């Protein structure tokens, strides 16, 4: 696969070349939009702070809201109530500076979204340029979830900073095409550059994380025993049942579908939804299968740590630490993961 | 869009006929015909599956398919008026356009596990719909099944679904139909008593048999003990679960019960499968 | 270590231990240490051993009154709507309360969500809580690994940096403009009363926005609220929000759309703020818990200002005072009624 060495100026030039055919997004580093992914208009290397930006990359895969179908509701219209897909403008994106955890989430969500043509189309629409992490923040735990600060999964091109320059490695065919746009000015990657990257990879692998491959251990555990474990009550006591964790989580993909109408036109949209909300499961009869707060808190963690691995293999968490950082009541998924891993039927919990 | 068919796009269809089923007017059966010939020809479902009825501007609602795959050319949906979309549907007229997305879910294993078995169908209230589809399918393939017993109950005679058909089936000698109402009612000379009681009295043999049970959770709960007493086991009992649904294809998360999506992996489960899941339905 | 906090923590623990061990309360709502620097977690102590987990510091930003109605209800025998209230005394709950939290408990009592006889209020005069967001900004958004709180300063450390901040500099805006730091209602008071504070320009933040032109105000509103993710942390952290079905969750009719488009987001925030009018104590919970830093507190602060100016009322100051917006008085001002003649809401 192609690899190039780019300094900050070269990155700017590369962005400018890519901007010809694609819109380029990167996390804003300040202003009211700080932490959100914004359209670049100035093609210089964006300032990207250590750790993950406030918003996950999932909003490119699940635009908020996403119009699934549009239709007319004018009775005299022959196409009245006949839904059709919205026209696409055909414009594609580059999402720049995606951290390995976020990039990895795209593939994890795709496991659940195989049949979802919109998700598949959005994967096709958005090229991911990753940026590996030289600093692991105090809320980061990607290595404990099966990822790595040097991870490239989900990236079309992966950038690694070495002494102020970036080693850009194409990871996919699309990445090759994009990186070709820097070929004329990018420098050759030397053997010592490659060894530097390898050294970083090796350092990431040999980290002192207590947890490795949690999915294997979790898959072996009995579902109902974990479900009935005693530690959920304390979490429910303090959880305020907001959706901060789910909406900022890169691997929470649940959604709601709603119809909206205005002046004879209608659209069927999907918006992110949260299993933390009572409405999520409420039947029209008034019956609510997860009417209790404890059921909802438990569901989110069980989905990530048990239901998802049972169904798809890996756990549905990439260790970005956003929920740890932003939970209003300091519910720390790392502790929950340990509680689940350490739980043996007798109710012994190591916090 | 990619080359796979968009699973969120409903087939255009027309409301062909609307029939009020119950005396309170809250249940209507909608006969729906897909507008495009190609869609009609491609449509294949199994008894027990459901579809999303799509009302542009109002939303979608998952409804069990009440017609048997053997009833060609149209689909039947018996709908209880409960929420926003079902209320809007009840207010629609014959000839109006509607969308149908499906068929969705697994359905009863009528062509596999249930073949060659004695079948006991137990239904309460308006949960009889997909069991009507199942019964008709089985009667059309009568030689594939052993003895067929139906126990069906409603609050009052006026709340029974498909009354004309019930009479026809009762007149047949290759199916054993027990229709019951909760309390004595003027003009009713049939069985009186709750479904679990009647199930206990009929006491269908569990030998080489399967029971398909649909009804309110409380009915299912009380129907099990009399069956268990005479030797029925959980893997002989098929239930159809209901949960709030949005996508209908096992993604959006609303209907999830543990690792299972009711819309995609169900709605039909054996009772032994259900017993391994959290009670979140 | 902060000696002030240490002393308060000690007293909280001993009071909670006493209340739980004597059985006076079935549960005690406080805070325990969190897993991150600058974090504490609300904690429901149910056994006397739990009391030793309770802590107090400048990061207790979430209003604990938020938990009170539901926790009280959890100790009641289940009953359906219309059933008579249970007979006999029901278990009590202990709760920590600063000035604003205690005022929220007053509001809850007056709105029949909380039975005064079932609550043991342990009052703690507030020194003002710290905004973690301000601290993060002060250290240039670097990753904070430890935060040590002294009485008047915070020592912040991370990879390759160490910084000392003046505590008051990073206290939350609502606390800085608070005039009632002492609990207005309590059964036990911990620490010395702080006394009514004199604050110049309590509503300076609101005035600043009011002085903007219509267009500037709109732009302020649009920009500041654009990053809302509709997670409802603000609503769920609010002790005023106890409706069994919130207007945003109602589907018959659906009052507000579900998307994060401007119309839906703005409508949600405006409606939420209005539901707090005359009831909000400016406790700052909403703003503190917002994961994306939206200043929604300024909307309720504006309404607090209006209610104070028009009705001379501040929420929850006394159990005897009528609730301003649910009590009819012929002398109530009507200047807010827009007429053809009135341009900007008429006379005040």
What does this structure look like?
The complex is a heterotrimer of chains A (351), B (281) and C (348). In chain A, 34% of the residues lie in helices and 17% in strands. Chain A is of the alpha/beta class and 351 residues long. Chain A has two domains: 3-205, no CATH class; 214-342, no CATH class. In chain A, helix 7 packs across helix 11 and helix 9 (232-238) crosses helix 11 (293-312). The model of chain A is unreliable at 347-351 (pLDDT under 50). Chain B is built from eight helices and 15 strands. The radius of gyration of chain C is 21 Å and the shape is globular. The chains are: A alpha/beta (351), B alpha/beta (281), C alpha/beta (348). Chains in contact: A-B, A-C. The interface between A and B is large, with 52 and 43 residues.
How would you name the oligomeric state of the polypeptide chains in this document? heterotrimer
Taking pLDDT < 50 over at least 5 consecutive residues as the criterion, the unreliable ranges of chain C are none
Radius of gyration of chain C: 21 Å
> Strand order, biggest sheet of chain C?
2-1-3-4-8
Order of helices and strands of chain B: EEHEEEHEEHEHEEHEHEEEHEH
Number of strands of chain C: 8
CATH class of the largest domain in chain B: Alpha Beta
Task: State the separation between the terminal residues of chain C, measured CA to CA.
Answer: 49 Å
Shape assignment of chain C: globular
Q: What is the count of structural domains of chain B?
A: 2
Residue share in β-strands of chain B: 25-35%
Residue share in helix of chain B: 10-25%
Give the gist of this structure:
The complex is a heterotrimer of chains A (351), B (281) and C (348). With 281 residues, chain B is an alpha/beta fold.
Task: Offer a few descriptive terms.
B: Elongation Factor Tu (Ef-tu), domain 3, Rossmann fold, 2 domains, six-stranded antiparallel β-sheet, C: 348 residues, alpha/beta, three-stranded antiparallel β-sheet, 8 strands, 12% strand, globular
Topology (elements, then pairings):
The complex is a heterotrimer of chains A (351), B (281) and C (348).
Chain A lengths: L2 E4 L1 H11 L3 E6 L9 E3 L18 H4 L4 E7 L19 E7 L1 H13 L4 H9 E6 L25 E6 L2 E6 L2 H8 L10 H15 L8 H7 L2 H5 L4 H7 L5 H5 L6 E8 L2 E8 L20 H20 L9 H5 L6 H10 L9
Parallel strand pairs in A: 2-5, 5-6, 6-7
Antiparallel strand pairs in A: 1-8, 2-3, 4-10, 7-8, 9-10
Chain B lengths: L10 E10 L6 E8 L2 H6 L7 E6 L3 E6 L10 E6 L3 H7 L6 E8 L13 E7 L4 H12 L7 E7 L8 H9 L4 E6 L9 E2 L2 H8 L6 E6 L2 H13 L7 E4 L15 E2 L2 E2 H4 L2 E3 H5 L6
Parallel strand pairs in B: 7-8, 7-11, 8-9, 9-10, 11-12
Antiparallel strand pairs in B: 1-2, 1-6, 2-5, 3-4, 3-6, 12-15, 13-14
Chain C lengths: L2 H19 L5 E7 L6 E6 L22 H7 L18 E5 L1 H12 L8 E5 L8 H7 L5 E6 L3 E6 L2 E6 L6 H4 L11 E2 L14 H7 L3 H12 L7 H4 L25 H14 L9 H5 L7 H15 L37
Parallel strand pairs in C: 1-3, 3-4, 4-8
Antiparallel strand pairs in C: 1-2, 5-6, 6-7
Helix pairs in contact in C: 9-11
């Amino acid at each position: 696969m192609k690899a190039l060495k780019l300094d900050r100026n070269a990155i700017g030039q590369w962005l400018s070349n890519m901007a010809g055919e694609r819109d380029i997004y990167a996390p804003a580093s300040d202003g009211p939009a700080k932490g959100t992914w914004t359209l670049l208009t100035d093609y210089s290397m964006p300032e990207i702070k250590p750790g993950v930006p406030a918003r996950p990359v999932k909003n490119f895969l699940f635009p908020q809201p996403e119009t699934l179908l549009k239709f007319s509701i004018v009775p005299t219209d022959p196409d009245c109530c006949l839904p059709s897909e919205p026209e696409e403008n055909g414009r594609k994106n580059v999402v720049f500076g995606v951290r390995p955890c976020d990039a990895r989430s795209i593939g994890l969500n795709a496991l659940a979204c195989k049949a979802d043509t919109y998700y598949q189309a959005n994967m096709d629409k958005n090229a991911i340029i990753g940026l590996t992490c030289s600093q692991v923040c105090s809320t980061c735990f990607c290595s404990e979830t099966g990822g790595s600060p040097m991870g490239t999964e989900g990236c079309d091109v992966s950038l690694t900073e070495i002494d102020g320059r970036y080693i850009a490695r194409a990871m996919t065919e699309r990445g090759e095409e994009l990186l070709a746009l820097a070929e004329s000015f990018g420098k050759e990657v030397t053997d010592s550059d490659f060894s530097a990257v390898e050294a970083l990879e090796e350092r990431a692998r040999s980290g002192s994380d207590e947890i490795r491959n949690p999915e294997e251990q979790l898959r072996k555990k009995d579902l109902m025993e974990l479900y009935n474990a005693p530690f959920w009550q304390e979490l429910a006591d303090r959880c305020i049942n907001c959706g901060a964790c789910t909406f900022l989580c890169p691997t929470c993909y649940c959604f709601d579908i709603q119809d909206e109408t205005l002046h004879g036109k209608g659209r069927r949209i999907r918006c992110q939804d949260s299993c933390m909300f009572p409405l999520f499961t409420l039947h029209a009869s008034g019956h609510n299968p997860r009417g209790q707060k404890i059921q909802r808190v438990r569901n989110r963690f069980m989905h990530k740590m048990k239901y998802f691995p049972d169904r798809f293999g890996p756990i549905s968490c990439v260790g970005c630490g956003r929920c740890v950082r932003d939970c209003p009541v300091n519910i720390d998924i790392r502790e929950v993961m340990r509680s689940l891993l350490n739980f043996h039927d007798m109710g012994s919990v190591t916090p | 869009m990619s080359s796979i068919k968009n699973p969120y796009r409903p087939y255009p269809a027309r409301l062909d006929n609307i029939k009020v089923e119950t005396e309170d007017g809250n249940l209507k059966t909608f006969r729906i015909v897909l507008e495009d010939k190609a869609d009609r020809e491609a449509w294949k479902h199994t008894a027990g599956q459901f579809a999303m009825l799509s009302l542009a501007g109002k939303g979608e609602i998952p409804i069990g398919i009440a017609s048997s795959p053997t009833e060609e050319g149209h689909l039947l949906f018996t709908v209880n008026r409960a929420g926003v979309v079902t209320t809007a549907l009840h207010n629609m007229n014959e000839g109006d356009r509607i969308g149908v997305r499906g068929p969705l879910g697994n359905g009863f294993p009528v062509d596999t596990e249930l073949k060659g078995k004695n079948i006991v169908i137990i239904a309460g209230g308006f949960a009889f719909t997909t069991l009507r589809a199942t019964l008709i399918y089985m009667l059309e393939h009568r030689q594939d099944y052993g003895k067929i017993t139906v126990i069906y109950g409603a609050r009052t005679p006026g709340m029974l679904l498909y009354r004309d058909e019930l009479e026809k089936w009762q007149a047949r000698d290759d199916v054993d139909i027990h229709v019951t109402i909760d309390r004595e009612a003027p003009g009713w000379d049939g069985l009186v008593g709750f479904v679990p009681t009647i199930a206990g009295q009929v006491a269908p043999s569990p030998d080489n048999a399967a029971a398909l049970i649909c009804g309110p959770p409380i009915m299912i709960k009380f129907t099990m003990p009399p069956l268990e007493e005479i030797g029925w086991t959980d893997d002989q009992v098929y239930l159809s679960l209901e949960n709030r649904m949005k996508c209908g294809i096992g993604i959006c998360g609303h209907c999830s019960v543990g690792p299972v999506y009711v819309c995609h992996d169900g709605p039909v489960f054996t009772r032994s499968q259900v017993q391994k899941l959290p009670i979140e339905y | 270590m902060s000696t002030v906090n240490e002393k308060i923590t000690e007293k909280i623990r001993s009071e909670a231990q006493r209340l739980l061990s004597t059985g006076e309360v079935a549960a005690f709502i406080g805070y325990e240490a969190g897993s991150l620097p600058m974090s504490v977690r609300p904690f429901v102590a149910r056994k006397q051993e739990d009391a030793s987990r309770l802590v107090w510091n400048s990061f207790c930003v979430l209003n604990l009154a938020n938990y009170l109605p539901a926790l009280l209800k959890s100790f009641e025998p289940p009953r359906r709507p219309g059933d008579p209230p249970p007979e006999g005394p029901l278990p009590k709950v202990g709760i920590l309360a600063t000035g604003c939290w205690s005022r929220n408990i007053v509001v809850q009592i007056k709105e029949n969500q909380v039975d005064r006889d079932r609550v043991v209020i342990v009052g703690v005069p507030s020194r003002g809580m710290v905004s973690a967001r301000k601290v993060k900004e002060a250290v240039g958004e670097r990753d904070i690994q430890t935060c040590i709180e002294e009485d008047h300063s915070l020592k912040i450390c991370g990879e390759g940096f160490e910084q000392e901040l003046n505590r008051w500099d990073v206290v939350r805006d609502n606390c800085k403009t608070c005039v009632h730091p002492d609990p207005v209602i309590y059964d036990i008071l911990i620490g010395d009363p702080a006394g009514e504070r004199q604050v110049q320009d309590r509503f300076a933040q609101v005035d600043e926005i009011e002085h903007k032109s219509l267009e500037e105000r709109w732009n302020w509103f649009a920009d500041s609220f654009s990053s809302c993710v509709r997670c409802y942390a603000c609503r769920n952290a609010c002790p005023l929000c106890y409706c069994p079905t919130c207007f945003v969750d109602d589907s018959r009719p659906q009052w507000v759309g579900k998307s994060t488009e401007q119309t839906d987001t703005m409508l949600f925030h405006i409606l939420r703020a209005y539901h707090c009018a005359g009831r909000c104590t400016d406790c700052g919970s909403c703003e503190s818990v917002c994961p994306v830093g939206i200043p929604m507190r300024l909307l309720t602060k504006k309404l607090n200002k209006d209610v104070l100016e028009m009705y001379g009322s501040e929420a929850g100051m006394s159990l005897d005072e009528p609730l301003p917006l649910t009590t009819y008085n012929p002398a109530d001002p009507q200047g807010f009624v827009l007429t053809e003649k009135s341009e900007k809401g008429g006379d005040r």
